[in-house]
Every structure is written in C-alpha cells, then in structure tokens.
Amino acid sequence: MIQKPNQDLITVDIGNQHLSLVWNNDFITETSSLIHQNPFNNLSIPSHLPVMISCVLDKPQIKEKYPHFHDWKSKHTGPIFYVNDFRNKFQFLSMPVQYASTLGEDRLIVAYGAFEKYLMAEDYENSFDFGIIFDAGSMLTLDFINAKQGFIGGYILPGIYHYKNSLGQGNQLKNYSLFQSMGELLQLPQLPHLPLDTKAAMELGYAESVLALVEKKILSHKNDHSKKGFILFTGGDSRFWHELCSKNLKHSITFMENKRFIHESLSLLPYKENR
Question: How distant, in Å, are the alpha carbons of 57, 64, 210, 272 from that of 12?
Fold first, then answer.
C-alpha cells in the first residue's frame, strides 16, 4: 500500500560530495568543498519537527564534511532518525532484504520507496513485477527489486565524477574533458560501435560497459515475457543516463526519472510509530 508523503517531516540526504535537505518544498544543499558558505542561515524550519536522514558517511564524518548542517542539527530539538533505525536483519519494513548489513542507507531507502510505490501498487495497471534502481551520483549503483523477494542485490560502479578522476591519472588522458556535453555523446551513432578517437574511446568505453550490464540484467529478469519491469533513474546524473539508456536499450521496459526520489522515499517512513 502506498503511503502519502509526510508533510511535517524534514528529509536529509547526506552523500559523499553533497548534502541536501528538503522541507515544505524548500531544497537546501551543502557541498563539502564549499565550507565558507552557510546555506542554513536564516532557515526558518520549526525546531520541533522530526528529521529523517539517509547517510553514507560514518556519523563523525558529518561534522568534518558538512559543518553547517552539523551545527544546525545540534540545535534542532525535534527527534532525529536514520534509515537503518528501521531495518531488521532481512527486512526493511514491508520489504524483504536479501543483502548483507553493509547495504548503504541511500541504496536501501531508494529501493524501499520504489518497492512501495511501483511494486506494491494496489492498481494493477500501474504496478510492476520487478524494477532496476539506477542511482547516478558520485558512485553509480544498480539495484534490483522484485515483488516477491524485495531487494535482491545490486552493483556499485564509479560514477562519472570518479571515472573522470581515474582517467586523469594518465599522462595524456588527463588533457581530455569528458562528458562535458550530454547532447554531444547522444548524437553519436547508436551503440555499439567502435570509437575512432581517444575522447570517444574513454566516454564510450564507460557508457557501453554500463549499458551492457543493464541489458544483461533486463534479459535475465524478463525470462517470462508477461513480467512488467521498470528502470528508475535518480541522482545528480540521472538525466544523462536516462537519455542514453532510452536511446540504446530496446527492450520492453518502462523508463522513469526522478532526480530527488530519495527524499520522496524518506517521506514514506512511519516516523510516528518510532517516536
């Protein structure tokens, strides 16, 4: 059953490079490299409201990377919850979890949101049998859910940011600016084809490896042709991957994009039952 998003709730996504806070349609961000700018100045959020946090860092790292948020949080008087507060060993609320306890909070909560919204939908016409969560942030994660088994596993790859940094270690390769224009990459001939210059070799070597993995997994989940599936693209680079996959993956699968789906998922957590 799909729950209505909680209106009186602050949701926070703490990532490796960025932090975002959402309340009442306000979207506040803090970047770990911009420590002199305080986005929480003059922020008029009621101090009694509960805060729901997804965090990929160890808690002591929050103060170091995001000092302005840490100061704001220390003054906040409302209850504060983390995603893992709701997890048992093999269960996250209504969703079974076939994964070790090392599963990151960001991956877990986004999968739960998609599980509730798209696999447990009461309206059959709008429900699916399986889903792929394509979260394109500083890391790229591909996670898989189905209606019977819940969260069944996934992959972690370097995102575009880390991929470019790794190639920057090469003496000549560091001179190329990669993925500067999504349109430029999308205008290339349909994949697969062999790159004929170094820039294309680096860009398409990465893009094709990801597409091949996604395609292989779509086929393995669609062994029964009656099954309905979706790919949900989320995260900072979601638009790029959504466009690239929809152009090059020809399977019968529904494509969706929601850059801030993690906040929508956090708002589904039943915080009142845990106060």
Answer: 13, 17, 29, 17
